[in-house]
């Protein structure tokens, strides 16, 4: 059974870079089975897709964040990571990682439990 | 970007009610739409994908329909555990986008 778990700091300072990790169990991130992605949700607000990565390393980012986002794979640890630079208070959110199977219209499932990241000095 | 407009934003209903939520896309997305349920403090849970396919383990009182630009999620008989926020998401083109959500509250 595929499972995902986010980890990282809960508090980061403005202008710094956020680094989050998603640990995958139940399948290898090196398999050509899934896209691996990040989604965020500011407190009390809706969901925003951040971006995704394929086993080949090919990435796809939300244009609204593209200049600040990097998603990468660590196949040795079966993890993928999110880096978001130049943080501002508006980046305060719960960050989720999720898997998306290959295939037209495939949804995001499963999701990790999420991690709250607060941007504050 | 493809915009998704959900209506209503809030809905008050009683246990046993039939509830329908609508999601309209700003351009055609074929059947590439998913519905998620989110409870406070929890991650979204997949209910339906490709507009009408019920995710394994999801009760059959949930159903989805539509194609192109208009989609609906229906709960045939609302149960206490169904009070939550529901989101639609389009998976037709990048960037993937979500609707603004519909909060279903107890009347």
Features:
heterodimer; A: 121 residues; mainly beta; 7-stranded mixed sheet; 4-stranded antiparallel sheet; 0% helix; 51% strand; B: 107 residues; globular
Describe what this molecule looks like in 3D:
The complex is a heterodimer of chains A (121) and B (107). Chain A is mainly beta. In chain A, strand 5 and strand 6 form a beta hairpin. In chain A, the strands form two sheets. In chain A, strands 2, 4, 5, 6, 9, 10 and 11 form a seven-stranded mixed beta sheet that branches. A four-stranded antiparallel beta sheet of chain A has the order 1-3-8-7, with no helix packed on it. Chain A has no helices and eleven strands. Chain B has 107 residues and is mainly β. Helix content of chain B is 0%, strand content 50%. In chain B, strands 2, 4, 5, 6, 9, 10 and 11 form a seven-stranded mixed beta sheet that branches. In chain B, strands 1-3-8-7 form a four-stranded antiparallel beta sheet, with no helix packed on it. In chain B, 36% of the residues are buried. The model of chain B has no long low-confidence stretch (mean pLDDT 97).
